[in-house]
Design brief:
This protein is of the alpha+beta class. The protein is built from two helices and six strands; from the N terminus they run E-E-E-E-H-E-E-H. The protein has a single domain (7-118), classed as SH3 type barrels. Strands 4-5-3-2-1-6 form a six-stranded antiparallel beta sheet.
């Protein structure tokens, strides 16, 4: 199957943040195509954790954006944590990001990159 950048996809075995050996099923957004792999940012239903992350925002499942993205729960888009996975681990597309969501993610990625440069 062919996936594109800004597709929202289902990942049945996304690495767990606390224990990378463990995995969990979750939706994710493809933010970069790396030939055999894709760079992803995850979505979580743990919206109450918004203060835990610096680069994140909430998308309501019933909003026009949430509907286009195929969300089945209010989601926290976590740009703080990105991961590269083999394309074969992507099971299916559930939606796509509207332009305003793409703009938010790109801005957060830019800010994150600037912060990382300054901390070196």
């Amino acid at each position: 199957m062919v996936y594109e950048v800004w597709n929202v996809v289902n990942i049945p075995a996304y690495p767990n943040q606390e224990n990378p050996i463990e995995t969990t099923a979750r939706p994710a957004i493809i933010i970069e195509d790396l030939q055999d792999e894709v760079e992803l940012c995850c979505l979580t239903k743990q919206v109450q954790q918004v203060s835990k992350y610096k680069y994140c925002f909430i998308v309501n499942k019933d909003s026009p954006e949430g509907i286009q993205m195929g969300l089945t729960f209010d989601s926290l888009v976590v740009v703080d944590r990105t991961v590269s996975l083999k394309k074969i681990r992507v099971i299916y597309k559930i939606g796509s990001c509207p332009q305003n969501i793409i703009d938010k993610i790109e801005e957060l990625l830019r800010l994150k990159k600037e912060d990382e440069k300054q901390s070196k």
